[in-house]
Amino acid sequence: MNEDAQKLNALLDFDLLKKLVVGIGEVSEITGIPTRKIRYWEEKGAIQSETNTEGSTRRYNYLNVKKMLLIQEMIEEGFTLDAAIKKVEKRMVTLNEAFRKLADTVPDTEDNE
Fold first, then answer.
1. What's the pLDDT tens digit per position in 50-81?
2. How far apart are CA 4 and CA 54, in angstroms?
């Protein structure tokens, strides 16, 4: 298996994706989005951290990191923040519906054992 295929398989590793929760500093380092901007987007309701207790480090799951990357991409393409948030939310709903339908077509492996 080549390196590109291995990287793609990480996106299909749902157990890994469920465990993928990283701190705001790590998200900033990985995505190039400043922590101040990430905090602002959370205040605007575009994303939501896993940790909501006062004074604790904000941590973000895979879906929120994906949203951040999409929002940043749209802003770079000229969208306003509000327009980018609306478009990303619509895209996430569409993706969720598509994956839910896809999951319904996949036979449960426990039934086959």
1. 865 566 788 999 889 999 999 999 999 999 99
2. 40
